[in-house]
Amino acid sequence: MEISSTKPRQLSSRRLTSIDSEADRPVGVQRITVQRLFGQFDYDLKSETTDLSDLFILYGDNGSGKTTLLRLLFYILSLARAAGHRTAIQEIPFERFEVLLVDKTSIVLWRKNSIAGAYAITFSQVGMKPVTVPLVPLQTGKIASRRQRRKKLSPPSLKTSI
Description:
Blueprint: E1 11-16, E2 29-37, E3 41-46, E4 55-60, H1 66-77, H2 85-90, E5 96-101, E6 106-110, E7 119-124, E8 131-135, H3 146-153
């Protein structure tokens, strides 16, 4: 993995070989890119291999964003519904966070001219048109679901009682 940072703190990884050689494996992460993490760090973590049996160790100075990167990765890839992941992402300061999977699927979280608050997610795969979903924060600080966004934008009911 190659690391680049705009600040003197460095985040590094070391590749270790693993004994796992199972043929049926889940899709792995090939690259993680983050811009302006905490408003100051840019990282580009690249895997040298697509072999999912390899193990990477992430290490760096305290406060350099190791745990935050892993939390963001978990929030993006988690299949759990209504677990607060979208709200947790909203509270992490970054401008852009991109994950490229081994199968060339790209998931990008991004904010326009900001490192906090509302964000959008763009999904793309080779040969398919990218899909972008903006996530609008509610006044309580939670992120609105699609149903809540539709409800917020739809006109009030015209039912009257007699």
